Please model this.
Amino acid sequence: MYSHSKNNFMQKLKTCCNSVKSTTVSKLKNVSLRQFLQAELTRGYHLENDKEQFVARREKIYSCMKILKDVEKFMTYGFFQCADSFLFVYTFLPIRFLIAFWAIIKKPIEFIWKRPCKKVDVKFLRPAETCDLLKGLIIIICSVITLKVDTSMMYHLVKSQSIIKLYIFYNMLEVGDRLFSAFGQDTIDALFWTATEPKSKKYSSHFYYFRILLHLCFAVGYVLLHSILVLFQATTLNVAINSNNKALLTIMMSNNFVELKGSVFKKFDKNNFFQLSCSDVRERFHLTMLLLAVTMQTMKEYAWHLDRLFILLPDCTLLLLAEILIDWVKHAFITRFNELSPTIYKEYIVSLAYDVAQTRQETAFSDSSDVIARRMSFIPLPLGVAIARVLFTTLTVGTKPINLLLLILGYFILVSLRILISLLILGYTCTSISNYTQLNVHTKNTVDTAYSKKPLEALLTNSSVYNKSSDPNVKSALLHGTSFKGKTEKILISKNRYFRPSSENLLSKNLFRVGSEPLLNSHLI
Model:
């Protein structure tokens, strides 16, 4: 019975379609040329019949326009973090190195003077002092070795090559720089952990110090090779800018479009796109430092005449603008093709803000420069050694008192600039974390109300982590270097379970993270 009715329905449908087709064909056959042209010229469009589709397309255009501002907010915040980490090498690291070096001299003398008869296993250096001492040794050793590198010979060697060879060479240097940055921080972290880990009874003290020496040599080799690679990058860029033939500079700028082609049409999720965004921040800061090195080398060759500076500025500005434009286009199309909201950059900023907040705690696990190195693959030591090599060759400091006074003045200017950048970063970090906390509290209150009224609907919602806390004193905790405990109670509402952890377990930890940290660190507690 059912099959018979189905066959009747299909036959009627086929008959109806055939009749419509025959009617349409007969009408088209009877249309004259005048009627056809009149229909083409006076045919109307009823866009309101597809209102939702056109509104969605208009919103996509608005999102592409809004994303430029959000991209620059994230880029500026990350750029200042890289600048803060880089200036730390020239400002506070030398002081911390001298403090650690003084501790090596002072503490054994105090130990022998106060307790000469007792044999106690005492560490003369704290872990932070050990890391500062190793960083200082790496920079000193690599800087002394790079002083032996003849940059003028390097310049003429690069300049004597053809344009195509230089283009391939620059791309090879860029790939090598990324590869060095990928494993460089692991090398330095391995050295720090080997030097600060608790001694094991299985191995003798000689083996312990031999391992530290081995890791130190490996880290020095890495920083030295990476620094020489950065010097080659600066030299190639110097040849491209100061050459009479601007073809190489044009080819290097077109290389950004090749990068655009390789990244726009790939599939990205939030985490992968976050890594790409951090890499873009690092590239922008790296290019800025290379252009600074090129400007200093060129000005030194022309005896610091301002006329040459005005000739250099257009090319340097053009390179930076090309980098910024490519970043805008790349991020706009990646977010469009992968249907990512422009608000995703706020989540990225909050993630970076939590990294900064972690390093300001009293019991921080690592230095801020190390955290930035892991997040953005920006390692300040090789770039610091390369820029120091440029400074040694361009700035000649004599023995006159006025020269020493200018050197001290320049150092205090760098210290002031680093303090200013740190305060700006901390202020923006506090604002980002406070806004994120308030948003979580507001969302938590909304979900709590919905759960109290309709618990079944709340259980069937997507998994979310909410934080039940009052407004914590974030700024005082950051500026005083202390962690704070919030009377927090996290509620996890998921499809499979309703979990409310006990307050005793939560209060036993230093809960700096208010709410769930976005993106990469997705642990609950």
